[in-house]
Amino acid sequence: MQSRKKYLLLQVLVTGFLKKMSVFVKYYGSMKNLDKKRQLIFGKNILRLRMEKGLSQDEVAARCRVTKGSLSVIENGGRNFSFTTLLALAKALEVNPRELLDVDFELEKD
């Protein structure tokens, strides 16, 4: 009888834990998707500004000291990068850093 009570208690605890974990995983997954979407929005803005300036990826990459491949990944929303890279991109594109961030990131959807 004692082992049956322990088993039932353990079952209740595990079930409660799994429910909480599923909520966390669902929330974390939606956050990751939203972050990825925001990176893509930012990358498209970088691409747009680069094209408007008539600059190649090689030119911008050389100006901000990243590889052409890294710049491509940023433009395609595949990389979360540092603040200093943001500043270097702004300088390379000859824009105020504010202009790089002047897009709708859908922040209200957090």
UniProtKB/TrEMBL annotation:
Residues 46-100 form the HTH cro/C1-type domain. It comes from the Bacteria. Pfam families: HTH_3. CDD domains: HTH_XRE. The keyword DNA-binding applies. Keywords: DNA-binding. InterPro entries: Cro/C1-type_HTH (IPR001387), Lambda_DNA-bd_dom_sf (IPR010982), TransReg_Diox_bact_type (IPR050807). The keyword DNA-binding applies. PANTHER family: HTH-TYPE TRANSCRIPTIONAL REGULATOR, METHYLPHOSPHONATE SYNTHASE. This is Helix-turn-helix transcriptional regulator.
